[in-house]
Amino acid sequence: MQAGNSSAADPTTDATTTDGRRLVVLGLGRAGIEQAMAAARLPGCTLAGLVDARPGRRDFARGTGFTAPIAPTLDALLVRATADAVLVCAAPAERVAAIEGVLARGLPALSVGAPAPDGAGAKRIEQALAGGGRLFCGVPALFHPLFRRAMGLLQANAIGRPERVRASAFVSRVFAAGAPPRRGDVLDFALADLLWLLDALLGPTRAVRASVHRLFGERLDEVHAMLELREGIDVAVDGSWSVPGYPRTALVVEAEGERGTLIASDDALETNLTIPPAGFPAGETRRVLADEPDPLPFDAGDATPVVLAFRRALDGEADAALDPARALRVVRVVEALRRSAAGEGVTGERVEVEP
Amino acid sequence: MSVPRLLLGTTSLDLPAYATRDRALEVAARFREPESLAVTMIKALDAGAEGAYGAPTPTLRAALRELRRPVPMIVRLPLTPPDDDLVDDHPLDVAPDSGLGGALHAARAGFAGLAMLPASVAGDLSARVFARCEREAPRMGAKLVRGVAFAASVTDLALAAGNARALERLLRWGRARFGGLAGFETRNLGTLLVRLHEWGLEPDFTIGAVNPRGFTMRPDPAHVLAALKRPGIPVIAVELRAGGTVPLEEGARFAVEQGAWGLCPELIELDDVAGELRRLANGRAGAAAG
Questions:
Q1: ipTM of this model?
Q2: Is residue B107 part of a domain?
Q3: Which of B16, B18, B60, B237 could form a disulfide with B255 if both were Cys (CB 3.0 to 4.6 A apart)?
Q4: Structural domain contains residue A81
């Protein structure tokens, strides 16, 4: 009764063809299963195989019903299956080696989220890319319809040069039943996505200054930072994973320029523009998610639009949101924030972000 | 047992919903006290709702403990809270309870549970979901359960993997275990309905987005509306207000006109819960009479 996992012209059907990009998922945790769902259902994609060294995870993946081959290593899988690209979903500590392995085999790779946990890992990724590999990196926020609209407005110079910019990332996790988390802190869990977004909206960060609070243990629970962007813009940033009432991470960017203001979040985009770009109204406007086109044919979770953009990139439709250079910059900004935030509740030293 | 035509949705109190942050915080604050939610559920019944739809969250469990009058529940299982993302493992990647543990769970779940033993031994998705549901369901504290809806994270995983067998097993177990209805919540309503017809599976209901804006109607509004017209699988419509962009009555009218069997407005979509539910109930009664 189980059907194959493949692409189809009609998005509701599941014809057992094998056309489309053959995608392998490496790492079968939560992210890997989600991306396997996307690969199995998105048009133009075929789930070609699943890889994880842990037998328990392979058993789980098998039990879900995916009929694609499952193997403990990429090499073992490639003996049995043909792949066009790999969705790297390995845990952060294992991700650099996983990406290096994929690129060494001449396959393009996608990393949803940071491809490396630190600057040393970022350097290894750069070395692997220098050898000619193709890596794509993105986070769901860069594909969120309202943030995409905000990017378009800023690129069209809708508010003029941003003079005052504030941004925040809030989520409720420290109090959660599953807390404390096994790893990470507010920088990894919430702020990094905001940094990707700021890089895409306003450009790279040159230097940072941060203060932090550890409210519930040894890990960073709150961060207040000032980012100096290369464009000469200063951005005040707040991040916390200890704010009640936020089941999902809420990202907000507020920018004010000589031609107007823009407040972009994942639930609304508010603008007040004096000279709007073509096709956008002047004065105060408010758009919500339902106002934006969202032609996603299957919802497998937050990473779905990133996987879809990756498939399109493989087909030649380049998307700047998948630029690996941005991902590596964000890794280094997070590292700079950690170096700056040495003291509890004290504004740290200005730290230059490694170029 | 008939599939409800009107349910009060309570999942938006604890699980992510399509609404502005201000709205979500406002509604969460309104129901911070369990008595508030308990009273609201009773008012909803008096206004014409046939029950409530909710997951075993701390908020709903506390409210159900306050109630002396039973509220018929369609229970959404498993819980899959947002903080599942604190761990790298998939939230359903829990031991399927084979061996002695499985036998104990199965015995507790009666004949329906024993029927799940082969799936447990095989490590099938249905057995993992069953194990998690068996752990969560007793904690719910509902006095009157009319049925179970398997969460979208389960349905859509089986849908993506083409695992009809898992969905079939879950339906059989859910009906027997809860002595009533069993259905599927989904974020991909159009795709799910088509596949269920292809597979010959007939859940008692499905729960998915239907609204006049086409908001979150996947794969696209046209496919969802076409699937709604096929008889055989009742759809309980949610996201009636399209993320807060259309009035509730407009969304409800659209869903019914397009073929939705039932409506499940969420608390986050309602201001005057009793008044708005009464109007929806009266509207449905009027449509049936006319």
A1: 0.94
A2: no
A3: B237
A4: no
Asked if residue A110 is part of any domain, the answer here is no
Range of the domain at B14: 7-87+147-289
* Chain B neighbors of A179, CB-CB under 8 A: 83, 86
Q: What DSSP assignment string belongs to B56-85?
A: --HHHHHHHHH-SS---EEEEES---GGGG
B218 within some domain: yes
Give residues 92 to 151 of B whose Cβ lies within 8 Å of A.
92-93, 96, 122-125, 127-128
What's the number of domains chain A is made of?
1
Tell me the C-alpha to C-alpha distance, in Å, between residue B12 and each of A123, A134, B17, B74: 43, 41, 5, 15
Q: Which of B86, B161, B219 sits opposite A5 (nearest CB)?
A: B161
The C-alpha angle with vertex A143 and arms to B240 and B247, in degrees rounded to 5, equals 15
Asked whether residue A244 is domain-assigned, the answer is yes
What CATH number should be reported for the domain holding residue A236? Answer: 3.30.360.10
B139 located within any domain = no
pLDDT in tens, chain B (290 residues): 799 999 999 999 988 899 888 899 899 899 989 999 999 999 999 999 999 999 999 999 999 999 989 999 999 999 988 888 888 899 998 766 555 565 566 566 666 677 777 888 788 999 999 989 988 888 888 889 999 999 999 999 999 999 999 999 999 999 999 889 999 999 999 999 999 999 999 999 999 999 999 999 999 999 999 999 999 999 999 999 999 999 999 999 999 999 999 999 999 999 999 999 999 999 877 776 66
- With an 8 Å Cβ cutoff, are B21 and A66 in contact? no
Please provide residue A245's backbone torsions phi and psi, each rounded to the nearest 5 degrees. 90, 10
Total domain count for chain B? 1
How many residue pairs bridge chain A and chain B with CB atoms within 8 Å of each other? 168
Chain B, 174-203: which have a CB under 8 Å from a chain A CB?
187-188, 190-191, 194-195, 198-199
Within 10 Å of residue A161's Cβ, how many Cβ atoms?
Answer: 12
Q: Strand, helix or coil at B191?
A: helix
State whether B15 and A3 contact (CB < 8 Å). no
Give the CATH number for residue B250: 3.20.20.70
Q: Longest Cα pair distance anywhere in chain B, in angstroms? A: 57
Tell if the CB–CB gap between B165 and A1 is shorter than 8 Å.
yes
| Residue B88 with chain A: CB contacts under 8 Å | 29-31, 91, 182
As a whole number of Å, the end-to-end CA separation of chain B is 25
CB contact under 8 A, A297 and B219: yes
Stated pTM of the model: 0.94
Query: Does B113 reside within a domain?
Result: no
Q: How far apart, in Å, do the first and last CA atoms of chain A sit? A: 54
Q: Which domain holds residue A271?
A: 142-294+324-334+344-352
Task: For residues A298 and A313, give the distance between their C-alpha atoms in angstroms, rounded to a whole number.
Answer: 18
Element (H, E) at A111: strand A109-112
Closest partner CB to A11 (pick from B166, B223, B245): B223
Q: Which residue in A181, A245, A297 is closest to B24 by CB distance? A: A245
Task: With CB atoms and an 8 Å threshold, state whether A11 touches B28.
Answer: no
Evaluate whether residue A267 is within a structural domain: yes
Name the nearest CA neighbour of A229 among A196, A207, A247, A214.
A207
The chain A residue lying nearest B81, using CA atoms, is A247
